[in-house]
Amino acid sequence: STSHLQLAAFALGTVGWILCTISMGIVEWRVWHVDNTTIISSGIAWVGIWKVCFISYLHVSPGYKEQFCHKFSGYDSSIPPDIYAAQGLLLIAMFMGLLGLTATVFALRNIYMGITHKALITHLFLVGGFFYIFAGLCVLIPVSWNFYSVTHNHSIAFPPSYYMPSSPAVQEAGAAIPVGIVAVILLLLSGTFCLSYRFPVTANTVTK
């Protein structure tokens, strides 16, 4: 009965970790609106942390559309540091979140199985809380950095093979950023709940 908050931490941490993974795979980190629709037929391109995509009607039968994507290469010096930072930090966050979930599961297992190993349970919750908070911060940095780039309409000097302009007419935050923000909130809450755990103190009573 003393670990309900930590059980909630596990649930929130699980959802936060899933959202972190989802945000990493979503291509809509930045939504670019471009004026030249010769190749980017819809006038909209999506810039993610792994690739850039757009819809084109070029070389496609009338009435059909095709999505073209270009994966970022590690040798593309034109790709800004905030995108490369997001790649590394989100991979770290996913790994740290998984470690946090593992530590929380073992701690809860000991509690609900009646294993009263005070030091082990407390340390597992502390480790889990640390991993949750570290994972949340690893998501917060790329989300904030990319949102800053969007609000200041930063350009990207894409290689010619990408068929992308160096700067959009207008750009806005894509779906990955709010998903990442929710992941940050849930992971930080999970970490706080885990760190707040205190092993219950039982008093021995003598009956006559």
From TrEMBL:
Keywords associated with the record: Cell junction, Cell membrane, Membrane, Tight junction, Transmembrane, Transmembrane helix
User: How does it sit in the bilayer?
Assistant: Multi-pass membrane protein
Which GO CC terms are listed, alphabetically?
bicellular tight junction; plasma membrane
The source's superkingdom equals Eukaryota
Q: Name one Pfam family in it.
A: Claudin_2
This protein's major location comes to other
Places the protein is found: Cell junction, Tight junction; Cell membrane
InterPro entries xrefs: Claudin, PMP22/EMP/MP20/Claudin
Q: Which family does it belong to?
A: Belongs to the claudin family.
The record's annotation in PANTHER family points to: CLAUDIN
Q: What is this protein called?
A: CLD34 protein
Q: Which organism is it from?
A: Sagittarius serpentarius (Secretary bird)
